[in-house]
Each structure stands twice: as structure tokens, then as C-alpha cells.
């Protein structure tokens, strides 16, 4: 039987990834702001659907 060479990677936080360490550009939004913005966009789209006639 052939030997299988197992190459293992060094342990890095037991599989946990820390995404918050990287700072990105752009606006910082809370989850509440995203939900409110989505709801407002939906209301505007529905209002436009009923007010614009083709």
C-alpha cells in the first residue's frame, strides 16, 4: 500500500476568522440603519408603482 503524505497547516485560531481586524473605507452602518433603509426603499418603490401610470 502506498503511503499518504499528510501535510498539515499550522493552527490559526482553531478555525475562527477575525473579520473585524480589517478596516475598510466607506460609510459605517448599523444593522438597524440597513433595515430601515431597505424598508424605506420598498415603500418608495411601491408608492411609485401605484402613482406612475403608463
From TrEMBL:
Residues 1-30 are cytoplasmic. GO terms for cellular component: plasma membrane. Pfam families: Sec61_beta. It is found in: Cell membrane. The chain crosses the membrane at residues 34-52. Keywords: Cell membrane, Membrane, Protein transport, Translocation, Transmembrane, Transmembrane helix, Transport. Its main location: membrane. It is a single-pass membrane protein. One of its GO terms (biological process) is protein transport. Belongs to the SEC61-beta family. Component of the protein translocase complex. Heterotrimer consisting of alpha (SecY), beta (SecG) and gamma (SecE) subunits. Can form oligomers of the heterotrimer. Involved in protein export. The function of the beta subunit is unknown, but it may be involved in stabilization of the trimeric complex. This is Preprotein translocase subunit SecG. It comes from Methanobacterium bryantii. The lineage of its organism: Archaea, Methanobacteriati, Methanobacteriota, Methanomada group, Methanobacteria.
Amino acid at each position: 500500500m502506498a503511503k499518504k503524505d499528510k501535510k498539515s497547516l499550522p493552527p490559526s485560531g482553531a478555525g475562527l476568522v477575525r473579520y473585524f481586524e480589517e478596516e475598510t473605507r466607506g460609510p459605517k452602518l448599523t444593522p438597524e440603519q440597513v433595515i430601515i433603509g431597505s424598508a424605506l426603499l420598498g415603500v418608495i418603490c411601491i408608492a411609485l408603482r401605484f402613482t406612475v401610470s403608463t
